[in-house]
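From the shared-data thread, chain only:
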Amino acid sequence: MKESLEFCAKYKLPFRFPKNINNIKLLTQMKSIPKPLAEAHAQAVAYAGALGVKLIDNLFSSLVDYSALTSYEKLRDAYFNVISNLPEGINEIYMHPSTENSPMGRNNPKWPSRVWEYRLLLDDALRLHLEKENVNLISYPEIP
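Structure, as tokens:
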């Protein structure tokens, strides 16, 4: 991590790492964060700050178990729920969108959800929901 942050500082790049560790607990479905992980996270955030490397505040994905995402509508609603409950700050919601005919999708039972994520990114309903929730889209270079 040290070398990555130093590289980012040298070239004035942001780093895709959340300041808030609580979302790591949610994403990994841990009941609690082990003390060594919490300490390493705090050190990394402090080092990034000392170097002037920009970080996001929070990192999210759909927190619904993929087995429960049995339709496009369920996946859309799961992401809309995440969007509706975003905290203040710089938040990233990550997905793994793909097309139906991707060779990576063969023999992958979770592939339909990736196709639905692709469909969601193209859906005007997503744009409208973001507007309704007053979410402003930015790119990594725009992180304050």
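Strands lie at 15-18, 55-56, 58-60, 91-93.
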